[in-house]
Write a structure and sequence with these properties.
Helix 4 links the parallel strand 5 and strand 6. The protein has 11 helices and 9 strands. The chain has 2 domains: 99 residues, Gyrase A, domain 2 (2-Layer Sandwich), CATH 3.30.1360; 183 residues, Rossmann fold (3-Layer(aba) Sandwich), CATH 3.40.50. By secondary structure, it is an alpha+beta fold. The protein has a 4-stranded antiparallel sheet with strand order 1-2-4-3. It has a 3-stranded antiparallel sheet with strand order 7-8-9. Strands 5-6 form a two-stranded parallel sheet.
């Protein structure tokens, strides 16, 4: 669209936008509201200035009516012939008339359910919005890395593994296909029996340490969970597949490296047997630096550590990084102080 834009003296203050979509259907398709601000800057009558703008404005090829409204607003009514020509051109263009962008690699992380439990309505927003963003960014020409950062590591898997081993030792074979029921029963045992909870935490440490037996049991939970997720994705027509999954477990080998990097920078402190980073940016109620646990006293790692490994890889590709809630900002603070190279490359995946 060609719009009359006079060159104002540089000393003039910034003026409002020249035109925008009409606020009401009766005002046409576009409204040029900048005349009001320009008239004030020039100390002239806005309606008279609008008349001068119309005299210099030629929109005959795209608009069938251009009119002055009120004290100096300009309403632009696009012609049906012009709209038809643009629609026809878009229909015959594989990109619908959209100008391709300078391609960048963009990681879109979405869905990211916790495995071993059924997906719920809370996952719907991230899954749908994320897939829409991935499709739009791909369509306009970006190289999109889809990422499905599933929760496939940590305490819940120690709990499930301990419950599975305990059940088999008792001679009962629980149906893993009903993971929601299995998880519920395991959680009751975890909450009510301190000895069972200790065994579950032990299994977490064994899993993170590479124990082959525990890892094999863990693979069963992950496979069944992912099959449930994939069924939901197919029903929603979402483009996430197994190859896009890069869960918390994918960064396990990086965790000792992160620990050492923090130690080398003098950021790591011992606190009651755990390895902790104290952040001056975040304060407790007693106005003391807030501590973030990197490694528990039993040798296990928390999500904070796993997420640091993830961000070391993700930032290689990300154009946008969105941080929300205090604990994500705390992790970001740790990340900014600890540069860790990924131990392996990342392929095109969706987390």
């Amino acid at each position: 669209m060609r719009v009359f834009r006079p060159r104002w003296p540089p000393a003039r203050r910034t003026l409002p936008p020249w035109y925008s979509l009409a606020s009401k259907a009766g005002f046409g398709d576009y409204q040029a509201n900048g005349v009001m601000g320009a008239a004030k800057a020039l100390k002239t009558n806005p309606r008279e200035l609008a008349q001068k703008v119309l005299a210099a404005l030629d929109l005959s090829d795209i608009a069938d009516k251009v009119e002055i409204a009120g004290p100096g607003f300009i309403n632009i009514h696009l012609s049906p012939d012009y709209l038809a020509r643009r629609a026809e051109a878009a229909l015959h263009d594989s990109k619908l008339g959209i100008t391709p962008v300078a391609a960048q690699r963009v990681m879109v992380e979405y869905s990211s359910p916790n495995l071993a439990k059924e997906m719920h309505v809370g996952h719907l927003r991230s899954t749908i919005i994320g897939d829409a963003l991935a499709r739009v960014l791909t369509f306009i020409g970006h190289d999109v890395v889809r990422a499905n950062h599933v929760g496939d590591w940590g305490t819940q898997f120690g709990m499930l593994t301990a419950f599975l081993v305990e059940s088999r030792q008792a001679g009962s074979e629980l149906a893993l296909n009903d993971l929601e029921d299995f998880y519920r029963k395991a959680k009751v045992r975890f909450d009510e029996d301190p000895a069972f909870a200790d065994r579950a935490r032990e299994y977490v440490v064994r899993l993170q340490g590479g124990d082959a037996e525990v890892h094999k049991l863990w693979e069963q939970f992950v496979d069944i969970s992912l099959r449930h997720c994939e069924a939901v994705y197919r029903k929603l027509n979402v483009g996430l597949t197994r190859e896009h999954v890069r869960g918390e477990s994918a960064y396990n080998a990086d965790l000792p490296v992160i620990l050492q990097a923090l130690r080398d920078k003098g950021l790591l402190a011992d606190s009651e047997g755990a390895k902790v980073v104290f952040l001056d940016e975040f304060r407790t109620q007693e106005d003391q630096p807030m501590g973030v646990i990197i490694q528990k006293k039993d040798g296990g790692y928390l999500y904070t550590t796993t997420d640091r490994g993830r961000s070391a890889i993700a930032t290689t590709y990300c154009i946008w990084i969105v941080l929300s809630t205090w604990w994500m900002r705390a992790r970001a603070s740790i990340s900014s102080n600890c540069s860790v190279s990924a131990t392996r490359p990342v392929s095109r995946r969706t987390v």
